[in-house]
């Protein structure tokens, strides 16, 4: 793993990737923040040694380096998922590469379904805690202790200081920012009515198919991390309608300006 990370980092550095301060992982329908970045270098995933390749049609597949809100940033325009056939170590490999490039903070976004029916489509949830239902761990491999502490504490996986800043930014900008628990499932199928009821019982406010593996690895690397979910559908088991991916993408796009405000204003404080 160390060898693979070193190869990827050296390749990126040779292609103009400098030392970023902040890493950003962009989820479904949340790519327009790129328009705010002064791009200095970019590279398709399939050209980076040892990187997986994004296979989801609405996920781009580029790593971008540049300046945003006065800070050097590296952005994943598109992420990887277990449902694409990748292992959890594949999914989280880019986090390790970004850390080795130099990031000291990680910001993550995703699109998710609202289990908490007080939350509505197009709103944003600040993830305060999570439930890992992906059936494994990105730390469960031989030699993990060479990269960090094997038994990572997750009593507070999301950085309290950055979360507090995000709540303050939301208040100042009249953004309705919920706070809650995110459950991460494998997918790619959407949940049944019974599964939505189960998720509510175990304490989830939102459900998606990503993010938690990256959060675990960020904690393994002692990398402060926050995550925001755009709520793109309402998961009411008593009034469940067939999923409409186009509608999900549309609601992610509606919330995107607020997400950009939250991320850019947070970066200014870091």
UniProtKB/TrEMBL annotation:
GO molecular function: purine-nucleoside phosphorylase activity
Domain Nucleoside phosphorylase, residue spans: 22-268
UniProt pathway annotation: Purine metabolism; purine nucleoside salvage
EC main group: transferase
CDD domains in the cross-refs: PNP-EcPNPII_like (cd09009)
Alphabetized UniProt keyword annotations: Glycosyltransferase, Transferase
A cellular-component GO term for this protein: cytoplasm
GO biological process: nucleoside metabolic process
Record EC number: 2.4.2.1
Domain of life: Bacteria
NCBIfam families: PNPH-PUNA-XAPA, PRK08202.1
Family: Belongs to the PNP/MTAP phosphorylase family.
UniProt xrefs under PANTHER family: METHYLTHIOADENOSINE/PURINE NUCLEOSIDE PHOSPHORYLASE, PURINE NUCLEOSIDE PHOSPHORYLASE-RELATED
Role this protein plays: The purine nucleoside phosphorylases catalyze the phosphorolytic breakdown of the N-glycosidic bond in the beta-(deoxy)ribonucleoside molecules, with the formation of the corresponding free purine bases and pentose-1-phosphate.
Name the record gives this protein: Purine nucleoside phosphorylase
Organism: Patiriisocius marinus
Gene name, Swiss-Prot/TrEMBL: deoD
């Amino acid at each position: 793993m160390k060898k693979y990370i070193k190869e990827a980092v050296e390749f990126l550095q040779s292609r103009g990737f400098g030392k970023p301060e902040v890493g950003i992982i962009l989820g479904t329908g949340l790519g327009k923040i790129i328009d705010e970045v002064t791009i200095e270098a970019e590279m398709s995933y399939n050209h980076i040694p040892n990187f997986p390749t994004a296979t989801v049609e609405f996920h781009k597949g580029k790593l971008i380096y540049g300046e945003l809100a006065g800070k050097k940033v590296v952005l994943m325009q598109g992420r990887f998922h277990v449902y694409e056939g990748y292992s959890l170590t594949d999914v989280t490999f880019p986090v390790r590469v970004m850390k080795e490039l130099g990031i000291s903070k990680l910001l993550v976004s995703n699109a998710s379904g609202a289990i908490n029916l007080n939350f509505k489509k197009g709103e944003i949830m600040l993830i305060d805690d999570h439930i890992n239902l992906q059936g494994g761990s990105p730390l469960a491999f031989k030699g993990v202790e060479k990269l960090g502490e094997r038994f990572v504490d997750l009593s507070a996986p999301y950085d309290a200081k950055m979360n507090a800043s995000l709540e303050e930014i939301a208040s100042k900008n009249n953004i309705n920012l919920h706070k809650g628990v995110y459950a991460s499932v494998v997918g790619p199928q959407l949940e049944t009515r019974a599964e939505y009821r189960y998720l509510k019982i175990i304490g989830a406010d939102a459900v998606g198919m990503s993010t938690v593996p990256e959060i675990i690895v960020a904690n393994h690397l002692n990398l402060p991390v926050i995550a925001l979910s755009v709520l793109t559908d309402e998961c009411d088991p008593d009034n469940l309608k067939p999923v409409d991916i186009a509608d999900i993408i549309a609601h992610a796009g509606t919330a995107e300006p607020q997400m950009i405000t939250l991320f850019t204003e947070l970066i200014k404080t870091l």
